[in-house]
Amino acid sequence: MLLYIIIIIIFFIVISLLFSIFIINYNKFQTAIIKISEAEENINILLKKKLELILRVKNFIEDKKEDYKITGLEKLEKQELNTFELNIELEKYNKKIMEITDYDKSVIFDDDEILVIKDLYNINTECLASERYYNDNVVTYNNLIKCFPSNIIAKICKYKFKDFYSNEKEEIFEILKQ
Fold this sequence. Notes:
Blueprint: H1 2-64, H2 73-78, H3 83-103, H4 111-146, H5 150-157, H6 167-177
């Protein structure tokens, strides 16, 4: 009789331990998912602001020099792009605009226009910081999917690897996977 009680106690201890491990790892996933979602929302808001500022600076440039035409930017507002695609497209236009605002001394901006250009610089900095925060949390999330025992929870909950905003973090993650 005492043997049965000991076996039952050990069984409950093992079940409790397994359940605790599951809960701890599940909560790690939930924390990473929440942080990634917050970062995605922040990036989405910043990209919309960035698009608006790029359009404004583009108009300043085109008003000052008619031979500087930056085409295709208006189409971005109407296209249904995910944040990764929008980020890539905006960065192309941002580089063109920054080349003109930084290096072309024939285009002279007034004080209000300079403030908008500075806002664009600030948004670029905020975007980079948000992307870094996103990527850091994606590394944590992807590591949870890869490592034991959290990989079991990932399979149970059908969690999939997430993409990075820059190739740099992806390369680091690939190195860590090996």
